[in-house]
Amino acid sequence: MAEEASFRNAMMAATTPGLSVTSDSAAADQQPKKFPKGIVLGKDGKPCRSCTSFAAWAAQTKDKTKKDAAAGSRAVSTTAVASGPPADCPPDVETLGRSTWTLLHSIAASYPESPSRTQQSDLLSFVGLFSKLYPCWVCAEDFQGYMARQKPEVSSRDEFSQWLCRAHNDVNRKLGKPEFDCSRWDERWRTGWKDGRCD
User: From which domain of life does this come (predicted)?
Assistant: First the structure.
């Protein structure tokens, strides 16, 4: 429950004005700083770029630029784009999330129907390491919590794809997004839609 609350708080901070999130240790070690709306802090107490939406990050940069200009520094114009960062910028939490789900579902789509024990072991290792190395610490801890509650099912492509779809829907629920119909997973990620629009 604590992980879900932490995940929800961080995701809300990425989209809610005036809210920032710190880890417990960072909060205890530092005096509270005022951060712009939606900034999510890393475990080190500094703003976490991969945990924060581009709009919130750009607002922070714009706010800093205004303060620097007021202090006599040369100002650089920054414009927040609601649709996300330009393609050549580090990904924000939303871009990272979309790209990650695309990668994970694509891995599931190419996973064998009847994997060997080695392939099953490799996938379990990958998912475990992935959950520890994911750049957004709040998202990583949430995924680890999900895996502790719902052990990854890797004995077939169908089992893994359905487990992954449920994991994705778990995140969608927390973010207030619509859930995906997991019975249509194959069409979305492997075979293409029956109406032929992917052919």
Answer: Eukaryota
